[in-house]
Amino acid sequence: MEIREQQTKLANNFGKLLRDKFSKGPQAIHVTICPPYVIYLSGFVSATEQVLLEQEQDITVKTTREYVMKSLEPEIRGQIKAITDLDIQQIYYDWNLANQTGVIVGVSYETPAPSEAYRGKEEVHKEIIRISEEAEKVPDHVESYRLSNRSLVVIREGILVPIEKQLVALGFDEKLRVAKRQLEGEMLLNSTQFSRILDATVQDVFVDWDFARDNSVISFVLKPNN
């Protein structure tokens, strides 16, 4: 099966999976099979979630999605394995409820992405480090991948401060994740540097963490200026 066929098959399968769990699937799903593997969702808010959002219960929606997505991880890995024969070790996800969009990123440590240069890579890393330091601490390591002209993925390692590690140890990892998403997501989206560096409009920014591995994945959805 060719890459394009695999992407279409995965998009169809994930749409059904999300409809079964949320009673409403995304209006559109775009799958990129290129390590890391990105699934971009749009038009994805259920009727119940919409009611909660109208009552300004954003945190409730985000927290509920955390638990639902956690339960779906084995099925997501299974779908990717069945269609692409790729083993996914970690799954990251985040949502922009205002835009009704979301992203799912699958990472395979057995099939690492090639570390290739792209225009502005060093500057992107500098801005990521600046924002990370302001929000928590300078990462031990930063790597990024320009998967296409519309997709950029950044992986940070060693980003948790001691108080965050203690909160995770005490079982507050999901609440910490929601709080950090709100803080860092806004900082990343409000930065004007990425648009300048990448010569593109930043349409969406998503961020998630693996607290056990002490790393984080940031996904940029871009609209090229040219």
The low-confidence parts are: none
Q: Give the helix proportion (percent range).
A: 40-55%
What Rg do the Cα atoms give? Answer: 17 Å
Provide the structure class: alpha+beta
The separation of the N and C termini measures 32 Å
**Assembly state (oligomeric):** single chain
Widest sheet, order of strands: 1-2-4-3
**Largest beta-sheet details:** 4 strands, antiparallel
Q: What is the succession of H and E elements? A: HEEHHEEHEEHHHEE
Query: How many H/I helices?
Result: 7
Strand-residue fraction? 25-35%
Total number of strands: 8
User: Taking all residues together, what is the mean pLDDT?
Assistant: 89
Principal-axes geometry comes out as globular
Give your account of this protein's structure.
The protein has 226 residues and is α+β, with helices and mostly antiparallel strands. Helix content is 45%, strand content 27%. It has 7 helices and 8 strands. The protein has helices at 3-22, 47-54, 58-84, 121-135, 162-169, 173-190, 193-198, and strands at residues 28-32, 37-42, 90-96, 101-107, 141-148, 151-157, 200-210, 215-224. Strand 7 and strand 8 form a beta hairpin. The longest helix has 27 residues, at 58-84. The protein is globular. The two termini are 32 Å apart. The mean pLDDT is 89.
